[in-house]
């Protein structure tokens, strides 16, 4: 491992005190560390304080990965430990990424992150996936990001924030407006992933308007949130209007989002089919009540208006297996090296192909007999070299 990367990833260490963690830090030079990975261990208050002293000495730190570091910790421990770690990172202008995913903060333990989010305006990537934030915790984080954007603007500087990942956090509608305001204020986002948050139509509509101010978006993932309600389509319509602004969009995941209330063609897919996002190569639309008319629309436009599309997921929609458009769409994607996913078997097939490719790339160990033969040849070569060294020409 490079001396620039310090990793205790996945070692299952229980670090309670300074004495527990110091042996792991003792021979590491913090001034040259660019990445630190501590996931899969559990850190107590005193150990976090010792770690913070180490982090304060870093000079070129780029990646701070502290996902899954509080398993088994009391709710009273987490804020203190988190505060030590985040405060040590506030002034790190070299820092690019902070990952605090898979830590059970809940809404009660997020306040220690706020000083970092507002004062460190150099970082670009924030990962807060599966933290149990809830609407209240989501508002705290979103308001901190909003304040950060406003401070940057007051200083005449452009925001550095590029990536926000905040899925599986039960953010719901209660925090959606705060997130929308934060996203709009930054305007620099390239990747936003907020799947499985229970956000419903009103919140989805607000987020579409906030994200619309980020014209450089390349990757959007809102899987398993709800875009329509009781036949109302304003969420879908709001996203249709915003799609036009995302000319750089490459990946769009709207699976399990109830895009179609009663089988109608979603307006946002009509916009896509008109070529609103010419760089789109991955479109995920599983389980959205889509019917034959939507499939026909996609097939009709896949070659001209959606020429970059390579991966299209349509599993669990209201589409007949013998619909001729499926075959035409499949052929169109295959012709450009892409793939259509209609059943779970398609996905399993891809996973098997990927595993086979990985196996082929791994260097093969020679058979035992070959090993012995090579060893014998090597020994004979060495013996001959020794004899030649003893020969002198007169």
Q: For the residues shown, what is the average pLDDT?
A: 91
Largest sheet: 12 strands, parallel
Unreliable runs = 365-378, 387-394
What class do helices, strands and sheet pairing give? alpha/beta
Strand order of the largest sheet: 1-3-5-6-7-8-9-10-11-12-13-14
- Helix percentage range: 40-55%
Percent of residues in beta strands:
5-15%
What does this structure look like?
The two termini are 52 Å apart. The protein has helices spanning 18-25, 45-56, 77-89, 114-119, 134-154, 172-186, 201-211, 234-243, 267-273, 292-301, 324-335, 344-361, 368-390, and strands at residues 5-7, 14-15, 35-37, 42-43, 63-65, 97-99, 125-127, 163-165, 191-193, 219-221, 251-253, 282-284, 311-313, 339-341. Strands 1-3-5-6-7-8-9-10-11-12-13-14 form a twelve-stranded parallel beta sheet. The protein is an alpha/beta fold and 394 residues long. Helix 4 (114-119) links the parallel strand 6 and strand 7 (125-127). Helix 2 runs parallel beside helix 3. Mean pLDDT is 91; it is low at 365-378 and 387-394. It has 13 helices and 14 strands.
Give a summary of the structure in a few sentences.
By secondary structure, the chain is an alpha/beta fold.
